[in-house]
Amino acid sequence: RNTRNSYFQATARTFLKRARQSIEDGDANAAQVAVKKATSFLDHIATRGVIPKKRASRVKGRLNRQLAALS
Q1: CA-to-CA distance for 63 and 61, rounded, in angstroms?
Q2: Is residue 10 a contact partner of residue 55, using CB atoms and an 8 Å limit?
Q3: pLDDT (tens digit, 9 = 90+) per residue, 22-43?
Q4: How far apart are CA 20 and CA 66, in angstroms?
């Protein structure tokens, strides 16, 4: 279980890194796709109990706020 959770957390960090990078680059379409993928994955691992649901919600909110500021 520890190995599986580590994999999920590492993958989540990768999705978040891609989303943040696309927001920094200023490409609205790519950023929107990346944020959607990251949000979906965060929901998935929160449902599985890898991370707390409130943490997933907080991270998603911050990402969406950054995306909205880009537009």
Answers
A1: 5
A2: no
A3: 999 999 999 999 999 999 999 9
A4: 8
Cβ-based neighbours of 44, under 8 Å, separated by 6 or more: none
Confidence of residue 71 (pLDDT cuts 50, 70, 90): confident
Pairwise CA distance, residues 24 & 42, whole Å: 20
Provide the H-helix boundaries in 1-71: 2-25, 28-48, 53-70
pTM, whole model, 2 decimals? Answer: 0.92
Tokens for 70, please give them.
Answer: 């880009």
Local structure of residue 31 (DSSP, 8 states): H
